[in-house]
């Protein structure tokens, strides 16, 4: 199948998701949980067996004591009570930026060395950043319309998405590298089409096993990990899409432009 025939369609789909997410980010931003802003996380069990998850932006010890005494006076059993200092928020944000930046640079260098071409490295990183923007933009929309909050588990989901995206991309890249060694043709587009066709079923089957597990987690896992499961689900779907339909088209387009440029210079 000629997958590369629809490069503009893939680009359009990506731009729709990324642009809507960026619009939401600039207009509404992200809804941060107390992991970033500071406050109290508490879980209380009421006399009727009902479980209450409490999240409050508490600033003083007096406010903390007031919350605890209020629920205990109702006969509620305190199962979890954590106070997150507001100073942890900026530090966590800073470490998140460092983690994403360092991992991006290391992945770029590693793929460039392994495939002996910076084109492969940049294409993989572009697909990885595509997935990160889709995920963050989606949660900006969820935060505005569905009150989803960005917490520490979301940071974990972002980093997991980056690793999944790169892993899936490397599988296709490796098949392209093998075919380039064995093929007598230098037509990268033809080889890319063959590589995508040969790896598509494996990639989809692998992703479906993860998707089924995440759907179960979202539906049955409870309120505390619902958004974490959804973040992983979006990252998995986006990562499965970006490997053949973002990284490879970018690589093929770069190769085409480079050959055109060399051809014009030699004339």
What does this structure look like?
A three-stranded antiparallel sheet has the order 2-1-3. The chain is elongated. A hairpin with a 5-residue loop joins β1 (39-45) and β2. The longest helix has 44 residues, at 223-266. It contains eight helices and three strands. The chain is mostly helical. The two termini are 34 Å apart. It folds into two domains: 3-34 and 87-266, Multidrug efflux transporter AcrB transmembrane domain (Multidrug efflux transporter AcrB transmembrane fold); 39-84.
Summarize the structure.
Helix content is 76%, strand content 8%.
Write the layout of secondary structure elements.
Elements (H helix, E strand, L loop, with lengths): L6 H22 L5 H4 L1 E7 L5 E6 L4 H12 L4 E8 L3 H28 L2 H29 L5 H31 L5 H33 L2 H44 L1
Helix pairs in contact: 1-5, 4-5, 4-6, 5-6, 5-8, 6-7, 6-8, 7-8
**Category by helix and strand content:** mainly alpha
* Number of individual domains: 2
Q: Write down how many β-strands occur, each being a DSSP E stretch of 2 or more residues.
A: 3
Helix fraction by DSSP (H/I, runs of at least 4): over 70%
Percent of residues in β-strands: 5-15%
Low-confidence stretches: none
Output the CATH homologous superfamily of the largest domain: Multidrug efflux transporter AcrB transmembrane domain
Number of helices: 8
Largest sheet: 3 strands, antiparallel
CATH class of the largest domain: Mainly Alpha
């Amino acid at each position: 199948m000629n997958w590369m025939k629809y490069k503009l369609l893939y680009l359009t789909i990506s731009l729709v998701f990324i642009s809507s997410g960026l619009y939401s980010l600039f207009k509404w931003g992200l809804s941060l949980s107390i992991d970033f802003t500071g406050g109290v996380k508490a879980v209380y069990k009421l006399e009727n067996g009902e479980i209450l998850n409490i999240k409050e932006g508490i600033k003083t010890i007096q406010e903390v004591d007031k919350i605890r005494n209020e629920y205990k006076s109702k006969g509620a059993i305190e199962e979890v009570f954590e106070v997150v200092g507001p100073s942890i928020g900026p530090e966590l944000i800073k470490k998140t930026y460092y983690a994403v930046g360092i991992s991006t640079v290391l992945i770029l260098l590693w793929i460039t060395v392994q495939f002996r071409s910076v084109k492969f490295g940049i294409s993989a990183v572009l697909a990885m950043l595509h997935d990160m923007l889709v995920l963050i933009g989606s949660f900006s929309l969820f935060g505005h319309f569905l009150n989803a909050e960005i917490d520490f588990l979301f940071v974990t989901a972002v980093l997991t998405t980056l690793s999944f995206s790169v892993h899936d991309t490397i599988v296709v890249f490796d098949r392209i590298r093998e075919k380039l060694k064995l093929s007598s043709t230098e037509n990268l587009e033809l080889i890319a089409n063959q590589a995508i066709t040969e790896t598509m079923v494996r990639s989809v089957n692998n992703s479906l096993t993860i998707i089924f597990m995440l759907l179960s987690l979202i539906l049955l896992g409870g309120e505390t990990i619902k958004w974490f499961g959804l973040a992983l689900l979006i990252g998995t779907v986006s990562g499965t899409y970006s490997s053949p339909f973002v990284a490879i088209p970018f690589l093929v387009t770069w190769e085409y432009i480079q050959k055109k440029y060399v051809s014009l210079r030699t004339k």
